[in-house]
Amino acid sequence: MGSSPMEVQQRSYWRCSKHDFFPEESFQSWSAYTTALSQTHLRVKDRFTSRSSDSAELGELRGRSENDMKRCLNWWDLTWFGFGSVIGAGIFVLTGQEAHNHAGPAIVLSYVASGVSAMLSVLCYTEFAVEIPVAGGSFAYLRVELGDFAAFIAAGNLLLESIIGGAAVARAWTSYFATLIGRSSNSLRIKTNLSEDFNMLDPIAVTVLLIAGVITMISTRKTSYFNWVASVINTVVILFVIVAGFMHANTQNLTPFAPYGAEGVFRAAAIVYFAYGGFDNIATMAEETKNPSRDIPLGLLGSMSIITGIYCLMALSLTMMQKYTQIDTNAAYSVAFQAVGMNWAKYLVALGALKGMTTVLLVGSLGQARYTTHIARTHIIPPLFALVHPKTGTPIYANLLIILSSACIAFFSSLDVLSSLLSISTLFIFAMMASALLVRRYYVSGVTTRSEGAKLVMFMTIIVAASAGTSAYWGLRPGGWVGYTVTVPMWVVGTAGIQLLLEKKRTPKVWGVPMVPWLPSLSIATNLFLMGSLGSQAFVRFGICTVIMLLYYVFFSVHSTYDMAHKAKEVEDGGYIPTKQSVQPN
Q1: From CA 115, how far away is CA 257, in angstroms rounded?
Q2: For residue 68, which of 101, 279, 518, 582 sits 20 to 30 Å off, Cα-Cα?
Q3: pLDDT for position 578
Q4: Rounded to two decimals, what is the model's pTM?
Q5: By the 8 A CB rule, do 36 and 42 touch?
Q6: Could you give the 3-state DSSP secondary structure of residue 191?
Q7: b or e along 282-305 (b: 16 or more beta carbons within 10 Å of the residue's beta carbon)?
Q8: What residue intervals traverse the membrane (predicted)?
Q9: Torsion-angle region of 132 (φ positive above 0: left; ψ -120 to 50: alpha; else: beta)
C-alpha cells in the first residue's frame, strides 16, 4: 500500500533534479541501466504488444500532471482557434512558393486535393477527440488502438512537427514584416558563409517565438481572447484579398494552367498540406473544453469546411492577379498587389499575414505543448514536461521545450527545408490515425477472436500496400496507368473485405465517422499518395530523423515506459492507485 496523498509533501512547481527527469528504476544507477539495456529486446517486445485504454488515458495519466488544466473553452473558442491555427502560414507563404515552383495556376487543384485528404483526417480526429477528450490528441488515440511502440513513432513525429512547424511560421513572419516596412523579404536576416538553406540567420523569428510562448504560458483563456481579435482582423484582410484579387484578375495569367503537369499539382498538394496541419491542435484542447462531445465536432468540422473554401479562392485570386513565373516565393500576395498598382495594399496584406501567422504561432504553441504534456505523462520523454502549473493551469515546461527548440531551428533553417520535412511528418501521422480508427471499430481486446484479428491485419496490410504501391508508381511513372490496374483493385478488395467479412465491435457513443471502412481507408490512401509526391530529399531527412528517434527509444524511452507500465500494474494489484496529488517528496 502506498502512503496517503495527504501525507505527501507538496513540491514546488519549479524543480530540476535528476529524479524529475529520470525517476524510473532503470536510471537510478549505472548497474540498473546496464541491466535494463541487457533486457532491451524483451522490453521492446513487451512495449510492442502493449496497448493503453480509454480509462487509463482519461484517468491515471492525467493525474501525473499533478494539477488539472482548466476547462474554459466552448465551440466558439474552438472554431476561432481552428481559424487561428490554420489560416496564416500556409496560404500566405506556401501558395506563392508552390505556384511558382511546382503547380502554376493549378495550385487551386492542389488545395482541393489536400483539402479533401485533410477533411478525411478531420473526421477521424473528431471521433477520437469526442471519445477520448485528453490533451494528447493523436498520440493518445494511437496509444490506445495501435499500441505503445506505434505511439512512440507518433510522438517522435509530433514533436518533430511541433518544432519544425513553429520554426517555419516564425521565419515566414520575418519575411512579411520586412515587406510591411518596405524592405526585401530577406533584408532583416543575417547572411553568413554557412551552407545553402542554412546561411540566413533570423533573430526576429526567435524573438517572435519567445513572445508567443510567453503569452500561451500565462493563460489559455486570455490566449483565446487574443486569438479572437487577431483572427477577426485576419478575416477582414482575407475578404479584401479575395475581392480585390478578382477585381484585378487577368484570365490570361491562368495559361498554361498546369505547366508542370499532374506531377507538379500533386507535389504541390503534398507541400501545401502543411496549410491544413494546424487543425489537429484543436483536438489537443479537448481536456480544456467544457462539453467535448458537442463543442469539438462543431469547432473542428465547421472551421475546416470554411477554411477549405477560403484557401481555394485565395489561391485562385493570386494566380489570376500575377503570372505564376513572376510570383514572389517569400511574400507572394504583397508583391502581387504591388504589381497591379495597389502599392498601399501590400501593407494591408502584410499586416493581415502577420496577424494570421501570429495566431498560428499562438494556437500552435497551445496545441504543441499539450501534445508534449501527454507524451511526458507516459514517460516517453522526461515527466518534468508533463507538469501543469497550479495557478495558470498551463504546461509551462512543455511550452518551454517546444518554443526553445523551435527557436534554435528557426535561427538557421530556410522555409523550403522546413516545409517539406513538416509535410511528410504530418501526412504520416494522419495515415496512422485513419488506421487506428479502423482498429477501434473492428477490434476490441477480449471480444475479437484470433481469426477476426488476423483477417483485420491482412485486410489493412492490403490497403496500406495498395496505397503505397499507387504512390510509388505515381512517383516512378507519372504518365503511366498499367500499375493502377493492380493497386486500385487491391485497395478496393482490402476495404471491401473489412466491410463484408468483419463485424464492427464498437459503435461511437456520440459522434462517429460515416461510411466506415471506406472513408478511413480512403484517408490512408490519400495521405500515403501525397507522401509519395514529395521529393526524395524529404524522405532522406525523414529517414535520418526516424533513425535518431529509434536510437532514443532503444536507449531511453523503452526502459522508462516499461518501468512505469509495470509499476502501475504492481500498484493496481496492490490495491492503491495514486491520485494527481500524490507526488514525490523533496
Answers
A1: 20
A2: 279
A3: 43
A4: 0.81
A5: no
A6: strand
A7: bbbbbbbbeebeebbbbbbbebbe
A8: 78-96, 108-129, 149-179, 200-219, 225-245, 257-276, 296-316, 396-415, 421-444, 456-475, 481-502, 514-532, 538-558
A9: beta
Tell me the three cell numbers of residue 561: 515506459
Q: What is the dihedral of CA 394, 396, 399, 401, to 10 degrees?
A: -150
Residue 190, SS3?
Answer: strand
For 248-261, the pLDDT digits (tens) are 999 999 999 999 88
Q: Give the integer Cα–Cα distance in Å for 313 and 241.
A: 9
> Using CA atoms, how far apart are residues 232 and 114, in angstroms rounded to an integer?
25
Rounded-to-integer distance, Cα 165 and Cα 421, Å: 10
Residues in contact with 506: Cβ distance below 8 Å, sequence separation at least 6, in sequence order: 440, 441, 444
Radius of gyration of the chain (CA): 24
410, 198 Cβ separation under 8 angstroms: no
How many Cβ atoms from other residues are within 10 Å of residue 463's Cβ?
28
Write down the number of H helices and E strands in the chain: 25, 2
- Please say whether the beta carbons of 576 and 1 come within 8 A: yes
Helix (H, G, I), strand (E, B) or coil at 123: helix
As a whole number of Å, the end-to-end CA separation of the chain is: 20
225 to 221, 324, 479: CA distances (angstroms): 7, 38, 50
Give the H/E segment covering residue 318.
Answer: helix 292-321
The answer to whether 193 and 411 have CB atoms below 8 angstroms apart is no
Residue 277 corresponds to which cell in the numbers above? 496541419
CA pair distance 355, 80, nearest whole angstrom = 13
Please give the single-letter amino acid code of residue 369: A
**What is the per-residue pLDDT for 581?**
36
Q: Count other C-beta atoms under 10 Å from residue 35's C-beta.
A: 13
Cα–Cα dist 107/103, whole Å = 5
DSSP state of 92: I
* Cell digits of residue 586: 523533496
Q: Determine the 3-state secondary structure of 354 from DSSP.
A: helix
The one-letter amino acid at 459:
F
Q: Decide: helix, strand or coil at residue 200.
A: strand
User: Cell 526502459 appears where?
Assistant: 559
Q: How far is CA 285 from CA 56, 230, 411, 580, in A?
A: 18, 19, 29, 19
Residue range 470-507, pLDDT digits in tens = 988 887 887 788 999 999 999 999 999 999 999 999 98
197 three-class SS: coil
Query: Considering only CA atoms, which of 411, 490, 574, 433 is closest in space to residue 117?
Result: 433
Q: Please give the DSSP secondary-structure letter assigned to residue 201.
A: E
Rounded to 10 deg, the angle between the 558-574 and 148-180 helix axes is 120
Whether residue 256 is preceded by a cis peptide bond, meaning omega within 30 degrees of 0, is: yes
The conformation of residue 548, written as its DSSP 8-state character, comes to H
The three-class DSSP label of residue 147 is coil
